[in-house]
């Protein structure tokens, strides 16, 4: 009963699907009704059944700000699913996350939607790599992959296979299999509904379990990287980097890593965009541009992408949140993930001094010792 009450208390009110059941209604159930609801959930779990009504989602297209309404690509799909189903999903998701974290199934370099982790972890890791390369007078080449429609194309059998390799057996994988299979959706515009469409692949949009399953599966991509290449993830945003004094060696190692990433994505039925970017921090007086490619398409080299850090010859990073815009260091997923807020980091010369209150505030936040 505690798990059910916790799941209901953590739920946010959303528009009801055609069954008309809302979270507010579920929260006002008396003890007897809650016991009956828990009995229903236990029967679904033990009898390994899944209600067909729970497989359907209602998709509402929302126009993106400042976009032309006549172009269908300018709409963001918002999926509404059954509130009873999502309540049960929250209960299952809490157990699944506990087991995944307990067994260390998810890489510590995956920071997306995990307790005690955020985009700051990825930012500090990248900044540390850049700082070390700067001190050692080495090249640092970092590649940021844009995985196209990762949620919609995720391989369901691959997700279930990953969980099987983690050692999950019994009712949990059967429930997750039933959760993923035979998904349908309808589009609603105003009060008009479309016909039913089948969702053959991908994780269900708008579902509580989808993010956890996707993260557990995609995080395995980091195990395929060469030992000389470091990587980090924020959900589906992948960054890899390699440091060294020999650009030819860096190119070979990164090209090998790119090929591994592309092979894994192809195996998992997802695809890397060919316009993924290279962030290049050259060694002093060694202007040798890296030449890398995805599928015979050369990757563009740049000093500024979604994450941007401009490093002068003498620098100190002031990591307090700022609205200044000339030279900014921004979270790669600040505008894409609802758990990440926009964060900017101005770069100051080493001759400047940092306010003492900022030092006290920021050192515990970033969990990194600095010699300033």
Automatic annotation (TrEMBL):
Pfam families on file: RVT_1 (PF00078)
Record domain Reverse transcriptase: where: 43-294
PROSITE patterns xrefs: RT_POL
Protein origin, superkingdom: Eukaryota
Keywords of the record: Nucleotidyltransferase, RNA-directed DNA polymerase, Transferase
An example molecular function term from Gene Ontology annotations: RNA-directed DNA polymerase activity
Keyword Nucleotidyltransferase on entry: yes
Keyword Ribosomal protein: no
PANTHER family (UniProt xref): REVERSE TRANSCRIPTASES (PTHR19446)
Name used for this protein in its record: Putative RNA-directed DNA polymerase like protein
